[in-house]
Fold this protein.
Amino acid sequence: MHDDPIDPFTGDPTDPAADLDAPGDDAPLDPLTDVERQDVLEDLADLEIYQALLAPIGVRGLVIECEDCREPHYFDWDLLRGNLRHLLSSGRPRVHEPAYDPDPDHYVTWDYARGYADGVHDTLSEGTEDEPGADR
């Protein structure tokens, strides 16, 4: 099983990205700070919870408003997980492009997923606090 998406142009002499410069030693990269690294680890943990709660009701992933191109980007659970892991290991986000013809009805925002998870947590917590003898 691969964590990274498979490059459909691997070995293809007509690869459209073949002429692009690959990031190399001439472009030094600052590693993630401890705070940034912790944020990414927390995002990965949150992603697991969101997928566990939302995938069974038909949510395929998350939509993120891209700051660069000002368009929504739709990420399925595995692709987003792979992107976050790549960021952890390389310190650099992956190059992205909008998904091909996604159905926006099957994707939610991080904020929606967080609110949904918080609501489930609060509902489950309320049920245990209200039971007689729960504090004994």
